[in-house]
Amino acid sequence: MKDLADYPYPLTDLFSQPQLALDWEKYRLSQEQIEFFNENGYVAGIQLLDENQIEVLKKALDEVMDPEHPLHGLFHEFHSNESADPNTVLFHSLGHWRIAEAFHDAIWNPAFRMVASQLLGNRAVRFWHDQLFCKPAHHGGVVAWHQDYSYWTRTIEMQHLTCWCGLDDATEENGCLQYVPRSHRWGLLEKPALAGEMDGLMAMLSEQQKAEFKPVSVPLKAGHAAFHHPLLVHGSFANYSDKSRKAFVLNVFADGTISNSDEPLLEGVPVISKGEKMGGKFFPLIFDPAELEN
């Protein structure tokens, strides 16, 4: 059995790789999409997966969710239910890219890599970590209002990006993403419990921020993604519908980000000393703009 973090390149043909600079063009965001991201802190509705890729990833998801999986020890975190409410379920994990070839190769999806580089200012991109967020039908739990970077201050500078991609259709009924537009301009807030009370963050907001707190729903078809700024306030409500809501998340940062901690940055990962550049097999370089010059 092998740790797929040892392979900094695609292992399957699930995602075709561009051979020429021109091949990347079809994955580029428009200038309007980039401007929307800069103004609002997110951009959504970007197709990353076709129907076959969705099915392959859903099969892999079902396999890695099994606590008895022989490579279970490679997870950085594994919560069969992280919900603070015992009557609801929120499956949440980190590290499945090390276990399943399909999720490993999703990191090298050119549609994802191109957009990530653009939104990070056309810079080289390194992988940070992955996540699974799954809400079963009828009793799926919430993800509380939060900012991603409030959990990531062990890395600096703040030059991170999150990509959320659905494997099921995400609707208001089954707990799709909710974004608070322009909240990425509020600065760094205190962090609430990620799967605790939905409104735990509200007590940490100023009166002006509360007045500007106007969430928008972001429904997405399966295989489509939303990208958001590390300070954008977001969350998702419970799933009481008869349809599941399965999704995976890819978190990245611009090359040159450094460690801000002398503790392990993720469970099971060797320490990168405070002040040292992030790199190595757990934080591979996944896109270099030089690839556009061939």
Structure overview:
Its cofactor is Fe(2+). Keywords: Dioxygenase, Oxidoreductase. GO terms for molecular function: 2-oxoglutarate-dependent dioxygenase activity; iron ion binding. InterPro entries: Phytyl_CoA_dOase-like. This protein is α+β, with helices and mostly antiparallel strands and 294 residues long. The chain has one domain (42-65, 76-293): Jelly Rolls, CATH 2.60.120.620. It is 15% helix and 22% strand. It is built from five helices and 14 strands. It has helices at residues 31-40, 51-64, 101-106, 110-119, 207-211; strands at 42-47, 77-79, 91-94, 125-135, 143-146, 155-156, 160-166, 177-179, 216-218, 224-228, 234-236, 245-254, 258-259, 285-287. The strands form three sheets. Strands 1, 2, 3, 4, 7, 10, 12 and 14 form an eight-stranded antiparallel sheet that branches. A four-stranded antiparallel sheet has the order 5-11-8-9, with no helix packed on it. The longest helix has 14 residues, at 51-64. It is globular, with a radius of gyration of 18 Å.
